[in-house]
Specification:
- By secondary structure, the chain is an all-alpha fold.
- It contains 5 helices and no strands.
- The radius of gyration is 15 Å and the shape is elongated.
């Protein structure tokens, strides 16, 4: 693209208001929540669909983001 990574990252942050990593995490959390609430997929299957390697990592990320475990969020749906 003819642009160095520092300028690309700075431009991304200016455009989206967050880092590339934070944007990816947000997409994973939103997709995970949608799958938890709207499908009968197991939590393990959702973990791999949102590209986490371990269910425990996904559970911790969801808890940090939404304040509840995936199982608790599913019960609320």
């Amino acid at each position: 693209m003819g642009i160095n990574t520092t300028k690309l990252k700075r431009g991304f942050r200016e455009l989206f208001g967050k880092t590339v990593q934070a944007f990816i995490v947000q997409l994973r959390m939103e997709t995970g929540l949608m799958l938890i609430e709207n499908t009968d997929l197991s939590i393990s299957e959702i973990v791999y669909r949102v590209e986490y390697s371990y269910p425990a990592s996904f559970t911790q990320a969801i808890r940090n983001h939404y304040g509840k475990t995936p199982q608790a969020l599913r019960c609320l749906a």
